[in-house]
Amino acid sequence: MTVLARDEFHPHTHDGWQLHLTRWWSPEHLDKSARPVVIVPGYGMNAFIFGFHPRGTSLTRHLAEAGFEVWTANLRLQGDAHPLHRGAGEPSLRSFAEIDLPCAIDTILARTHATASTVSLFGCSLGGSIAYAHLALTEQARVGAVVAVGSPLRWVEVSPLLAVPARAPRLISLVRTKGNRALARTLLPLLARTPSLLSIYMNAAHVDLSHAAEMAKTVEDAHPRTNHDIARWIGARDMILRGVNVTDALRQRDLPLLVVLGNRDGIVPEKTALSAVDAWGGRDVEVLRVGTPEDWYAHADLFIGNDAPAKVFDPVARWLRAHSG
After folding, report:
1. Residue among 70, 68, 86 nearest 17 (CA)
2. C-alpha dihedral sign at 172, 176, 181, 183
3. Backbone angles phi, psi at 41, to 5 degrees
4. Which of these, 65, 69, 24, lies nearest to 48 by C-alpha position?
5. In tens digits, what is the pLDDT along the chain, a chain of 325 residues?
6. What secondary structure, in 3-state letters, does 223-292 show?
7. Closest-CA residue to 30 (of 4, 1, 57)
8. In this structure, is the dihedral angle defined by the CA atoms of residues 24, 28, 32 and 35, taken in order, positive or negative?
9. Which residue of 27, 137, 193, 321 is surrounded by the most CB atoms within 10 Å?
10. Domain 5-322: which topology?
11. For 156, which DSSP code?
12. What CA–CA distance (Å, rounded) separates 47 from 22?
């Protein structure tokens, strides 16, 4: 197996947070002419899972062996990212998109081995939504291509699980969650015995849950402000940040876009994931649907499914290579 090189960086945001970036690359495969790929984690998670796969090749290894310099970006409250003082800015969708992601991209382009002047954003679930918001709020975004995996833009369709909290964003903002990682470590093996309870999030037939303790390392506690922002967004259908309708703003963006979705995603329904395709200003847009009626794919399957390396990582790597700049 190829040995990957790895190092870490901890840039500071202007509002008092230390972020956590990890760079992975394969010295024997690295193509310095290709854009660095920046993986942005989703809701209630950190970047651990991108370097781990229960049965096959991890996402970071897959992309590194395809020739890319791969960065994982833990934004505020993810992984080792932490506030530097008590007055640090609050976690929110706007701060992720307008402060943290630009800080991460600037650091990456200052330290990359690549010759590119832009990055390719690889957003996972809410991470893709943060990428969309970043493009909407940043006039001179240093982004050359976007991959969004199971990512909502406009909530054309809302899953029953999310419809209830969307009706009470203020109430949601009062709820504080702690111990989610320990809870996931305990519940995942138990829920595996009743696959129907997991079906909204994963197809248990696709995921090796004997590694639940390892997979739980990617789970983080969510911040009440972030929950409030998401609830308001679902209720309004469109994400509105700094008075900007993110859906409308993306009509001005002409970048290559790849939307990846599971055919039975119970968190981000297909119509909601495809809303980015309808809103996108450029013509270089592709959709990768994963799953069939008989062999269906849910949300988490796109990242940790047994066949995710072949059905998701490999076609995404080929797309990135074709759009590597």
Report:
1. 86
2. negative
3. -70, 170
4. 24
5. 788 999 999 999 999 999 999 999 999 999 999 999 999 999 989 999 999 998 889 999 999 999 999 999 999 999 999 999 999 999 999 999 999 999 999 999 999 999 999 999 999 999 999 999 999 999 899 999 999 999 999 999 998 877 766 666 565 554 556 656 665 666 666 555 665 657 778 888 888 878 778 878 888 888 889 988 999 999 999 999 999 999 999 999 999 999 999 999 999 999 999 999 999 999 999 999 999 999 999 999 999 999 999 999 999 999 999 998 7
6. CHHHHHHHHHHHHHCCCEECCEEHHHHHHHCCCCEEEEEECCCCCCCHHHHCHHHHHCCCCCEEEEEECC
7. 4
8. negative
9. 137
10. Rossmann fold (3.40.50)
11. S
12. 9
Q: What are phi and psi of 257, to 5 degrees?
A: -135, 135
Q: How far apart are CA 126 and CA 255, in angstroms?
A: 19
Residue ranges of domains in the chain: 5-322
- The contacts of residue 155 (CB under 8 Å, 6+ apart) are 233, 234, 237, 238, 272, 275
**Prediction pTM value:** 0.93
Instruction: Please provide residue 240's backbone torsions phi and psi, each rounded to the nearest 5 degrees.
Output: -115, 115
